[in-house]
Amino acid sequence: MEPGNLTRVSEFLLLGFSEKPELQPLIFGLFLSMYLITVLGNLLIILAVSSDSHLHTPMYFFLSNLSLVDICFTSTTVPKMLWNIQTQSKLITYEGCISQIYFFILFAVLDDFLLTVMAYDRFMAICHPLHYTVIMNPRLCGLMVLVCWIISTLNSLLESLMVLQLSFCRVLEIPHFFCELNQMTQLACSNNFLNNIVIYFATVLVGGGPFAGILYSYSKIVSSIWGIPSAQGKYKAFSTCASHLSVVSLFYGTSLGVYLSSAATHGSYSSTTASVMYTVVTPMLNPFIYSLRNKDLKEALKRFFVMAAIKKHLY
C-alpha cells in the first residue's frame, strides 16, 4: 500500500449482525433485555454480599468482584450497539474504538483471572480446610484482586498502544458489533506482524496461564474429594465448587467455540454471532448459576428485599 493511501482515520463503521432493517427492532429488543438482566442479576449479587455479614467470606468477596466485572464487561459493548441501532448509525469514532478495545480486553482478562483466583479459593477450602481461614485472610484476598487488576490493566494498555501504532486504509468497515482487536489489526494497511505476535503471546500468557492454574486446582480438588470416604461428604465438597466449575466451563467453552467457529467458517457474521455467547450470554447467566442452588445467597437476597420493604414502609 502506497503512503498516499494511508490516512489518520477519525471513524469506523460497525456492521453489526444484519443489514436488514426489519431485523433491527428484534435485535434491539433482544440485546436490551439481555443487558438489563445482566446488570440487574449481577447488581443483586453485589448488594446481597455487601449487605449480609454472613456472606463476608473469601468466596463471596471474589464472586461480588466477578459480578462487578461482568457488568462492566457487558457495558463496554452492548450500550454502544443499542445506541447505533436506535439512531440508525453504524459509526464509532477512532478514540471510541480504541477505548472500547482497552476496556474490553481489561474486563475480559479480569474475568479470566478472577475465575482462577476463585478456583484457588475452592482448592484451599477443600484440600486445606484447617488452614483455610488463616491463609485466605481479607488482606490476601484484597491483594489477589489488586494483582488481577494491575496485570489486566498493563496487558490491556500494551495491546491498545500497539493498535495506536497502526495505520488504516480508507475502507474502515468492522464486521462486528464492537471494535474487536483481531478485526482492527486485520484492517490495518501498515505492517501488523508485531501486533499479531503480541496478541498471540498475550493470549497464551493471560489465557493459557490462568486456565492451567484452574486445571491444576481442580485436579487437586478431585483428588481430595475422591479420598473422602462417605458419599454425602463427597457430594457436600463437590457442591461447594459446582457453580464455579459451571461458570468456568461456560466461559472457556464459549471462547473456544468462537475461535473454532472463526477458524472453520471464515465468516465474519458467524464469528460475530458466536462471540455473543461469551460477551453477553455468559455474564447474563453467571448470577443464575451462582444463585440457583446456593441457599446462603438466596437467604441473603430474601433478607435484603425484606429490609428494603420495611425501610420503604417506615419512611
Shape field: globular
What is the number of helical segments per DSSP (H or I, 4+ residues)? 11
Please tell me the overall pLDDT: 87
Derived structural class: mainly alpha
Helix/strand order, N-terminal first: EHHHEHHHEHHHHH
Number of strands: 3
Descriptive overview:
With 315 residues, the chain is mostly helical. Helix content is 77%, strand content 3%. It contains 11 helices and 3 strands. The chain has helices at residues 24-51, 58-75, 78-87, 94-127, 132-135, 138-164, 181-187, 193-226, 231-265, 268-292, 295-314, and strands spanning 11-14, 91-93, 173-174. The termini are far apart. The model is unreliable at 1-6 (pLDDT under 50).
Secondary-structure topology with pairs:
Layout (H helix, E strand, L loop, with lengths): L10 E4 L9 H28 L6 H18 L2 H10 L3 E3 H34 L4 H4 L2 H27 L8 E2 L6 H7 L5 H34 L4 H35 L2 H25 L2 H20 L1
Helix pairs in contact: 1-2, 1-3, 1-10, 1-11, 2-4, 2-10, 4-6, 4-8, 4-9, 6-8, 9-10
What would a concise description of this structure say?
The protein has helices at 24-51, 58-75, 78-87, 94-127, 132-135, 138-164, 181-187, 193-226, 231-265, 268-292, 295-314; strands at residues 11-14, 91-93, 173-174. The protein is an all-alpha fold and 315 residues long. Helix 2 (58-75) runs antiparallel to helix 10, helix 4 (94-127) packs antiparallel against helix 6 and helix 6 runs antiparallel to helix 8.
